[in-house]
Amino acid sequence: MRTPETRHSLIVRLKDQRNELAWAEFVCAYEPFLVRLVRRQGTPDRHIPDITQQLLIAIARSVNGWSSDGRDASFRRWLGRVARNVVIKFMTREKKQITGQGGSDFLQLIELTSDDTPDEARSQQYEHELILWAAELVRSEFRDTSWRAFWTTQVEGRAVADVARELGVTSGSIYMSRSRIFARIRAKISEVLDDSEQQS
Amino acid sequence: MSSCDPSLLPLSLEDRLSDAQEEFLTAHLSQCERCQRELEHLAGQPQVWSRVSTALKTACAGSGEAIFTDESHTTEESESAADFAVEFLSPSTDTESIGRLGDIEILEVIGHGGMGIVLKGFQPELKRLVAVKVLAPQLAVSAAARRRFAREAQATAAILHPNVMPILTVHSTGKLPYLVMPYVQCESLQQRIDRTGPLELVDILRIGMQTANGLAAAHAQGLVHRDVKPANILLEIGVERVMLTDFGLARAIDDASITRTGIIAGTPQYMSPEQARGEPVDSRSDLFSLGSVLYTLATGRPPFRAESTYAILRRLTDESPHPLREIAPQYPAWLGVLIHKLLEKQPSDRWTSSTEVAQLLEQCVAHIQQPAVFPLPAACQVAKPKWWRFSAARAGVAVVVALSLAMGMMFLPPLLRKNSRLEPTMATTPAPAPPPSESGGRQPPESPTPPTAPTTEWNHGEESLARLRKDLDSWTRDAQQLWKTPK
Q1: Chain A residues with CB-CB distance to B under 8 A?
Q2: pLDDT tens-digit profile of A77-126?
Q3: In the CATH scheme, what is the code of domain B186-380?
Q4: Domain spans of chain B?
Q5: Which residue has the higher pLDDT, A19 or B253?
Q6: What are the C-alpha distances in Å from B118 to residues B142, B183, B187?
Q7: What's the CA gap between B343 and B323, in Å, rounded?
Q8: What angle do CA A76, A78, A81 make, to 5 degrees?
Q9: Under a CB-based contact definition with an 8 Å cutoff, are residues B207 and B199 in contact?
Q10: How far, CA to CA in Å, does B95 sit from each of B90, B106, B129, B183?
Q11: Which of B36, B52, B60, B63 to mutate to test the interface with A (most CBs of A within 10 A)?
Q12: Cα distance between residue A192 and residue A76, in whole Å
């Protein structure tokens, strides 16, 4: 299902080598998210790799439009913004269109510049998708007990003391685990979402 | 209630606390509400916390995504393992057998791992017991997993060595591919440590030597194992034989057909730093993993531990393991030297090959059994102090410091008095020391045996030197700080 070949076809040539590296890293981090998102949008399985690739190409094309504003890590921030806009545009489109073939029409539809401002609801939806994706990744990084401590107290809202008793751990370790998990989820999200988004 | 230590909180978020700090903070957090709040605030602002919680709650309510609840992984796997036998095996006339697979009567399920399950079987025609490793049904549908499984067969079939578990036959075309191996009564090294805790010195050396020999056979074929860990090292029961198994991740060094997928392959705790970074690896990566295994055998725990895989990977790449001798002072200093050289971050700083490691370990085994006949291999002697390699200017400073420090230290005068002979520092115990134990067994740290063999004695001098070097290093750092011109 995963298509590592995609990355080779998406090598971009940038003046700054560091930006090329940033792009490569971005694709590595972002592609799994895209696959998940495309699937959740109701795309039939056989079209998922294709649509994912189209989205990455759309993002890659926009890379050419980038010029440095001299700020630190601005390429990465900008990349995050373009990606978000491409994805939101994609989510906005009718379901019947995305199930179809790719091609240049598709590219035109989702190709944008970083100036486009998507509507609030879609931005929320995008963030929602990112959170789910990040949580799924982080879940596999932690021990079951830690994750359960996080989930039951933070998501289900149960009392720390009760859960501690149930899991046979101290409440201190629950505070520790769930903060760690939360910090990791946040870090995962900020890998693809630019910083200004994070703080808002 | 213990007093607050705010500096621990950010470290805790990154999972970088030492064991003692972790223990302290966990206990403290159970009582201190202020630190609880502070820690959560450091992890993220309240509105971000609530946004994440809300998103997860709605996702869960909406589609009932099993992925976030813990029932998802564990139960699913064990269920499929049970169902699997029924579906996969054909009925047998043999009452002992639970089913038939090709020409093999399957007797029982021995265990299951990440890739599939292992069954015990009997081949009536050949009258032999076999172990059958079957690829898990959920993996058999994946072409990548099938390829990996086939690769294990090819990789292992290419190696014929007493310390590598051989593969008798492969069936890779059926619905569920499987491998047939000889049935050996064994326990994994992981099971052994879980059962007994840290091992005796001589056992560590012997197991290490045989594992290194098995690796050398693989490396000679251009194969890197990539997943050397206690669970993949089998100990034959009743015989002192070690067998390396599970070449599932093994890959020829020049095999470019498989692209990196970003999926973590291998067991994080025993990975090499280059593996953790996803960089290309060669045989020296296996040496690092072997170092982690030996460290675990000596201390009972892997050198790099943390709550999450991510934190483990970062420790692997960024942090030095805790000096072996501080955790396990009962072993001789040279064991630490040997193991820590395997655990060097830079592959070029490690021992050069598995063959070299196997030879060194063999010499060490000989040495602890007959110290008078077999000297400790020179390479395992406690290394030259690091400041030896300093630039001339710093070395100059170091020498001055060394002299002034040494004058004030107790160990130097006896050292000088006895001209060329180095006496142990606790020379006040004149009782004739017993010879080093035949088994190389661990001695309780509180009553160290005064060493008698020349090599051990020399070690002792080296140890004092190492301690001196430590002081020196910190002093040099302080001095550099001191001399830095204020801005």
Answers
A1: 2, 4-5, 28, 32, 127-128, 131-132, 135-136, 138-144, 146-148, 151, 154-157, 170-173, 175-177, 179-186, 198
A2: 777 778 888 888 877 764 444 444 444 455 555 544 444 555 677 778 88
A3: 1.10.510.10
A4: 8-68, 72-182, 186-380, 386-483
A5: A19
A6: 19, 11, 14
A7: 11
A8: 115
A9: yes
A10: 13, 11, 16, 20
A11: B52
A12: 8
Residue range B448-463: mean pLDDT, rounded = 43
Interface test with chain B among A5, A124, A132, A199, by most B beta carbons within 10 Å = A132
Domains and CATH numbers, chain A: 5-116 (no CATH), 123-199 (1.10.10)
SS3 B344: coil
Residue B242 has pLDDT above 60, yes or no: yes
Instruction: Give the span between the Cα atoms of B105 and B111, in whole angstroms.
Output: 17
Radius of gyration of chain A (CA): 19
| Residue-by-residue DSSP string for B200-218 | PHHHHHHHHHHHHHHHHHH
CA separation (Å) from A196 to A82, A112, A192, B205? Answer: 14, 20, 12, 55
What confidence tier does B5 reach under pLDDT thresholds 50, 70, 90? very high
Of all helices (H) and strands (E), which one includes residue B55? helix B46-63
Query: Residue-wise over B47-77: b if at least 16 C-beta within 10 A, else e?
Result: ebbebbbebbeebbeeeeeeebbeeeeeeee
| 3-state secondary structure at position B224 | strand
ipTM of the complex: 0.75
Per CATH, B72-182 and B186-380 having the same topology is answered: no
Catalytic residues of B: 227
Q: For residues A5 and A31, what is the distance between their CA atoms, to the nearest angstrom?
A: 12
Q: Which helix (H) or strand (E) holds B182?
A: strand B178-182
pLDDT of B262 over the 50 cut? no
> Which residues on A lie below 8 Å from B28 (Cβ)?
172
Q: How far is CA B205 from CA A160, B42, B406, B447, B455, in A?
A: 47, 46, 35, 23, 18
d(CA B96, CA A182) in angstroms, rounded, equals: 52
What is the C-alpha to C-alpha distance for residues B347 and B274, in angstroms, rounded to an integer? 8
pLDDT digits over A133-151, tens only? 888 888 888 888 899 999 9
Q: Which CATH architecture has domain B72-182?
A: 2-Layer Sandwich (3.30)
Q: Which residue has the higher pLDDT, B415 or B352?
A: B352
Condensed to tens digits (0 to 9), the pLDDT of residues B149-166 reads 777 777 788 888 999 998
> Cα dihedral angle (B73, B77, B83, B87), rounded to 10 degrees?
110
Which is more confidently placed, B297 or A23?
Answer: B297
Sign of CA dihedral B61, B67, B73, B74: negative
To the nearest whole angstrom, how far is the Cα of A29 from the nearest Cα of chain B? 9
pLDDT digits (tens, 9 = 90+) for B32-91: 999 999 999 999 888 888 889 888 888 776 544 444 544 434 334 444 555 555 567 777
